[in-house]
Amino acid sequence: KQEVTQIPAALSVPEGENLVLNCSFTDSAIYNLQWFRQDPGKGLTSLLLIQSSQREQTSGRLNASLDKSSGRSTLYIAASQPGDSATYLCAVISSNTGKLIFGQGTTLQVKP
Amino acid sequence: NAGVTQTPKFRVLKTGQSMTLLCAQDMNHEYMYWYRQDPGMGLRLIHYSVGEGTTAKGEVPDGYNVSRLKKQNFLLGLESAAPSQTSVYFCASSARGEAFFGQGTRLTVV
Which of B58, B97, B103 minimises the CB distance to A99? Predict the structure, then answer.
């Protein structure tokens, strides 16, 4: 059974800091890993998609890495801003079942 | 370019009533999913489908039924709504690549 875990559950940092969010999964049989952002009371916004054959993806201040063999992904946010405050979710699609499974999320607060 | 559309956006039900939530996608995706999200919690998979005419149970399927008669539509049914089903429901679709989400349906059962 695929399980996705995100650490830490919550994080508070001062503006300008670089930070890393972690995501781990138990079954390496995945099509891809995707990072999302969710603001309070809102829907999901896709940030980055990493195919299973890829090692990393970058978009602006965001960089996501994938190590499928160890079942780990990291989301690196450079020079954090108060506008980055949100919940960040990672999800994987199992290549065995087709299930899209989410972690519990990391709630980030960036203080001015 | 609509993407994934959920209908309705808001609904209030009385305990015991039934209703159907509609998820429609125009991207010809094979995979479709229904989730619920409760306050302070992540997304929990209710049911999913890997193709037209197929459905499978997720993590929290009890109290819900689904159908995928057409490739573009995935319906989520509540036969007898309970207060415990008060939640925000999200639908998603994927072609084994990027997943796209609807805007959510806020359901309250009183």
Answer: B58
